[in-house]
Task: inverse folding
């Protein structure tokens, strides 16, 4: 007989309350996680959307891409050796529209590459968020360091850097604006066996992101919030399952007295824990995914299904461990003690 | 025929540095189909003796022999198996599982005792036992909706559904009024005879002694010689 199921059927309210707590706590964690991921995307989508590969900057730059200037001859040597490689530069700056309104953007330029937008001189391709602000193809922009005008040629999806929309410009225009001839970085796509080059320091995508101090600090804070939430939620689950077990000590004692195996009581507890947690987490995942789709456009919210599934597995594991630890009481319950305590 | 033997059983509880001997070398044999009543003042050790005999707590010394097996030397899992298959329990309170119906309480006991009956046969057996205890009309009721007497009847049904060889009853009528107490004792006595179950019962109530085949008087952890 499935006594775990019989108990849940009879005590619907108690299990509904427990399920609601698991649902609300996990939903809170998913939403915060979505916001953290959203901010992370807002900060570094340009890098995060790239395939796994290796970034190179000069050793003298001391892990600060802003200070990196890769000598043109070195750049040519690398690009000749690695056909898919691209030399890139990123600089924060401003665009002025025809009404004089200033907009903060991250100017990005690169050598010919499938990974970055290639634009002609005088043209500009912007992140889609600027389209949502009312900018159209054909609009023109100026820049204090640039003599000509930038004509908007198109928009790209989700290309942000340092919380600003990315603006892809031609390399010649970039050189004119920033008075430089050398690029800051070289990116070689492909995860395995990054070659080494004299004078250049190699970084994986994640290592490169960690060199951006604002990104690193922001992510540390956000990750800390998420993991605190995960740990606190897990502890909450464990405490609630513990409370539930404590209330049932008398019952466990009687069941043991009539001969029910301790392992059967553990199975009963695990069945209930997994059932409640799985349903609550499923609802929570579904709702957070709906929010992911329906979230307001300006809200930096990014919650991939895989993240919610990973967090759900962690919750399930923590809940299981918590319930099992609290279930140690079941092992300790003396049938005689329960009988002497009176009616359950 | 003797089914149960308690041989020189002692029980000592330690409270700090003080050792208190609750049972002082008890010897007792129970015969098949007989109702044995343990009586005595509070603290005489009768409930302790019953729980040791039932395998619910260990003895400090001595042996408890059931069908030739010494249960005092068995592992807790072996004792659990003996409890589940051969013993039935009725306590002062019914101790029913609050989320199971009357029928399910009995079904659980059959599951625990690893009954070989098929589902349909189990249901038939449950109906038969519920008729015996006159609770067949309440088989779908939950304990919360039953009166004290009805709960105790269900507890008795649960204690005998798996056809135990020994029934342990610790103050089975203590929470009932006089009329219900007599009804419950009549039931236990009749079932003991009908199903040939050996019953060891602890009671304070002298009126209930008329239902016993044998009365054992205890005092200060010992059986009074005249009573054996």
Result:
């Amino acid at each position: 007989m499935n006594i775990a199921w019989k108990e849940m059927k009879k005590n619907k309210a108690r299990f509904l309350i427990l399920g609601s707590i698991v649902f609300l706590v996990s939903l809170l964690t998913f939403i915060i996680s979505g916001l953290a991921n959203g901010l992370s995307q807002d900060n570094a989508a340009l890098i995060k959307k790239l395939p796994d590969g290796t970034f190179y900057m000069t050793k003298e730059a001391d892990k600060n891409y802003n200070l990196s200037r890769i000598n043109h001859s070195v750049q040519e040597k690398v690009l000749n050796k690695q056909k898919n490689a691209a030399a890139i530069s990123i600089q924060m700056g401003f665009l002025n529209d025809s009404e004089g309104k200033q907009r903060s953007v991250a100017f990005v330029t690169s050598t010919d590459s499938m990974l970055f937008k290639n634009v002609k001189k005088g043209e500009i391709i912007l992140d889609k968020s600027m389209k949502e602000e009312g900018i159209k193809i054909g609009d023109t922009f100026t820049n204090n360091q640039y003599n000509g005008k930038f004509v908007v040629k198109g928009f790209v999806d989700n290309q942000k850097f340092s919380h600003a929309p990315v603006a892809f410009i031609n390399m010649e225009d970039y050189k004119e604006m920033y008075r430089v001839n050398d690029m800051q970085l070289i990116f070689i796509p492909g995860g395995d066996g990054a070659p080494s080059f004299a004078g250049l320091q190699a970084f994986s995508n994640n290592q490169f992101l960690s060199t951006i101090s604002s990104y690193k600090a922001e992510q540390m804070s956000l990750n800390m919030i998420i993991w605190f939430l995960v740990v606190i939620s897990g502890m909450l689950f464990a405490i609630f399952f513990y409370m539930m077990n404590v209330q049932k000590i008398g019952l466990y004692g009687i069941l043991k007295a009539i001969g029910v195996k301790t392992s059967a009581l553990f199975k009963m507890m695990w069945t209930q824990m997994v059932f409640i947690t799985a349903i609550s987490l499923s609802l929570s995942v579904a709702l957070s995914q709906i929010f992911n789709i329906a979230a307001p456009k300006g809200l930096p919210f990014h919650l991939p299904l895989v993240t919610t599934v990973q967090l759900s597995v962690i919750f399930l594991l923590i809940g299981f461990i918590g319930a099992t630890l609290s279930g140690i009481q079941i092992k300790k319950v003396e049938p005689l003690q329960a009988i002497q305590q009176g009616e359950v | 025929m003797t089914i149960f033997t308690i041989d020189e059983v002692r029980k000592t509880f330690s409270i700090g540095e003080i050792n208190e001997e609750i049972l002082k070398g008890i010897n007792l044999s129970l015969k098949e189909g007989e109702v044995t009543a343990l009586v005595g003042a509070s603290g005489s050790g009768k409930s302790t003796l019953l729980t040791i005999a039932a395998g619910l707590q260990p003895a400090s010394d001595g042996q408890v022999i059931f069908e030739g097996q010494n249960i005092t030397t068995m592992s807790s899992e072996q004792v659990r198996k003996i409890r589940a298959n051969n013993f039935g329990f009725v306590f002062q309170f019914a101790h029913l599982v609050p989320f199971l119906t009357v029928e399910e309480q009995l079904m659980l006991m059959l599951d625990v005792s690893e009954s070989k009956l098929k589902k349909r046969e189990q249901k038939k057996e449950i109906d038969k036992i519920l008729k015996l205890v006159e609770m067949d009309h309440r088989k779908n009721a939950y304990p919360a909706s039953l009166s004290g007497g009805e709960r105790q009847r269900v507890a008795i049904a649960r204690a005998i559904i798996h056809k135990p060889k020994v029934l342990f009853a610790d103050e089975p009528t203590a929470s009932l009024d006089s009329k219900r107490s007599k009804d419950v004792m009549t039931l236990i006595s009749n079932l003991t005879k009908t199903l040939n179950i050996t019953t060891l019962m602890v009671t304070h109530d002298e009126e209930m002694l008329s239902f016993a085949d044998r009365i054992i008087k205890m005092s200060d952890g010992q059986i009074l010689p005249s009573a054996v």
User: Anything to note?
Assistant: Chain A touches chain B at residues 1, 3, 6-7, 9-11, 251, 254-261, 334-336, 338-339, 342-344 (CB under 8 Å).
